[in-house]
Each structure stands twice: as structure tokens, then as C-alpha cells.
Amino acid sequence: MAIYVMLTSLTDEGRKTIKSNPQRINEVNKEVEAMGAKILAQYALLGPWDFINILEAPDNRTISKVALELGARGTLKTMTMAAMTVAELTK
What we know:
41% of the residues lie in helices and 34% in strands. By secondary structure, the protein is an alpha+beta fold. The chain has a single domain, classed as Alpha-Beta Plaits, CATH 3.30.70.60. It has helices spanning 12-20, 24-34, 60-71, 86-90; strands spanning 2-10, 38-44, 51-57, 76-83. It has a four-stranded antiparallel beta sheet. It starts with a strand and ends with a helix.
């Protein structure tokens, strides 16, 4: 499985949703897993991005589907990058 880093920034609508229903984050995590990706770690951030997620997915197609599905809702924007361990890089 491949590893991906997804940075997420909430839109105004997304901030309203999280404020009124903080558990929505957990619901979205379940939806991401139903799309075929697994969230390995998730952190809230201070700065231009609101969240960082470390995900595992079988391929670029799956993670692209996750990013498109989430972004199409209008509640967040994402930037997704493929990642590898330093050990993998130095092989």
C-alpha cells in the first residue's frame, strides 16, 4: 500500500459544520475508509492548513477519488502528496 499526506483547509461552510457537529470529522473518516483508504494519523493544525492526514491507499486512483469526493462537497480543499520512507528513498 502507498502512503499519502493530505493537507486539508476548511471552507466557511466546513467551519460551520465542524462547529455545530464536531463528530462530523469522525463520520468523514469512516467515509474515507469506505472509499478504500485508511487514515493512519490525523492532526489539527494552526496556520493555513486546518488538518494533516497520513493515509494509506492501494494506488493513486483511490486517493484521487478520496480527494475529489471530499472536495466536491464544498466544505474543504485538499492538497495530496505521495510519500515514502527515507529508507525507501535511499534504496
